[in-house]
Design brief:
Helices cover 41% and strands 16% of the residues. It is of the alpha/beta class and 396 residues long. The strands form 4 sheets. It has a 6-stranded parallel β-sheet with strand order 2-1-3-4-5-6, with helices on both faces. Strands 7-10-11 form a 3-stranded parallel β-sheet, with helices on both faces. Strands 12-13-14 form a 3-stranded parallel β-sheet, covered by helices on one side. The model has no long low-confidence stretch (mean pLDDT 94).
Length: 396
């Protein structure tokens, strides 16, 4: 805060104020982090701009879920070389999941000399110090901070990019270590925000007239496990729905292994909570679920779905499905088709498996061809389309 205050004192003497261009890649959690960071920057005295060529500060908030995303960002960062050549005073920073990886820091340091500093997912609170150093010492070659700060939740700023829909992170990190996922390695272990802070943020947004508020987390169902005393997600959800105001409450994302009936009961009993649940399945095969390290079976998953649909009439359940995970056979795929037909999801988010270096799944043998994966994807989409058409005709 001392660095932020000092920067603000420096910038108040400038007219017009310097501008910042910030772009976030990836998931809604990452976009929320970017909005929070932007709010802090605006509080320091910067003005926001959509014109990257005139910005005094350029920040890319990066994603690491897929290697293709990293390659795309590195290409964009490479193009900033020309901006730096035209305006040597511009400060360029890269943050987020991608730069939490030491090998990426080395790559940027050695090959992308236009970048002034980088900071990882644990170092948002260090940003003012890094920025101050860059502003006051133009001879600095490169700074970075990817230290993993244990059991800390980074300070959150309520800045939102939308005037009606808001998103509030309730936790950071993930403890699940699914074999295909890089998230626990770049976002660390779970850390939950105090329930009082979250409720205060909801009250502030409701008073400002926001109509839709979404609670964010890698696995919201395990919210509160790191608090003392622990606070179950169902309690947070119930208290959040009791905050006065004319708004709808949503949450993402849930992990089936931690979804409890008490959460479904709270959804059923509160008129403020949206009657939609996103519950990532990933595969309908128990063998593949075990290889993915998901810690639930198809039977356990369907028990949750059936309870939700019984307890919440008209409940819509959407899901994620990965096609072509290493070792997936035709039988495994048919198991997925069967559960899609049984669950009758409102919407599918489908992905063809993409190897992610640094995960356990990247070391697994994958004999399924790209053509087989595309054929399976086409069949899955066709099955879901028929379900959607039939349900739409039933409504008519």
């Amino acid at each position: 805060m001392d660095y932020a205050g000092t920067i603000k004192q420096i910038l108040t003497k400038l007219s017009p104020p310097p501008t910042v261009y910030l772009h976030s890649f990836g998931c809604r959690q990452n976009v929320s982090d970017g909005n929070s960071l932007l709010g802090k920057i605006l509080d320091m005295g910067f003005a926001e701009t959509d014109d990257i060529n005139t910005a005094a500060l350029i920040i890319y908030n990066t994603c690491a879920v897929r290697e293709s995303a990293e390659k795309k960002v590195l290409g964009i960062i490479g193009e900033l070389k020309h901006i730096k050549e035209n305006n040597p005073d511009v400060i360029i920073a890269v943050c987020g999941c991608m730069v939490q990886q030491p090998q990426i820091i080395e790559l940027i340091k050695n090959s992308y000399r236009q970048v002034d500093f980088c900071f990882g997912t644990f170092a948002y609170d260090k940003f003012p110090e890094l920025l101050y150093n860059a502003l006051t010492d133009r001879n600095l070659r490169f700074q970075y901070d990817i230290t993993e700060y244990k059991n800390e939740y980074s300070n959150f700023n309520l800045h939102q990019e939308d005037n009606e829909r808001a998103e509030i992170p309730i936790m950071q990190g993930c403890n699940n270590f699914c074999t295909y996922c890089i998230v626990p390695y770049v976002r660390g272990r779970e850390r939950s925000r105090p329930i009082g802070d979250i409720l205060a943020d909801i009250k502030t947004l409701a008073d400002k007239g926001y109509k839709e508020i979404t609670l964010l987390g890698q696995n919201v169902n395990s919210y509160g496990n790191t608090l003392k005393p622990p606070v179950p997600f169902s309690k947070l959800l119930k208290r959040a729905a009791e905050v006065e105001g004319d708004f709808i409450l949503r949450f993402i994302s849930s992990h089936p292994k931690d979804m409890r009936k008490d959460v479904i009961d709270v959804i059923a009993d509160s008129p403020k909570i949206c009657k939609e649940i996103h519950l990532p399945l990933q595969s309908g095969s128990n063998r593949i679920l075990e290889l993915m390290n998901r810690h639930y079976s198809r039977e356990m998953y369907m028990e949750i779905v059936k309870y939700a649909k019984k307890r919440i009439p008209g409940c819509k359940i959407s899901t994620d499905i990965i096609i072509g995970f290493p070792g997936e056979t035709e039988y495994d795929f048919e198991q997925t088709i069967d559960i899609v037909k049984e669950a009758e999801f409102s919407h599918l988010f489908t992905f063809i498996y993409s190897k992610r270096k640094g995960t356990k799944a990247a070391l697994m043998e994958d004999k399924t061809t790209d053509l087989q994966k595309r054929i399976r994807m086409t069949e899955l989409i066709s099955v879901q389309r028929k379900i959607a058409e039939r349900r739409e005709n039933e409504i008519k």
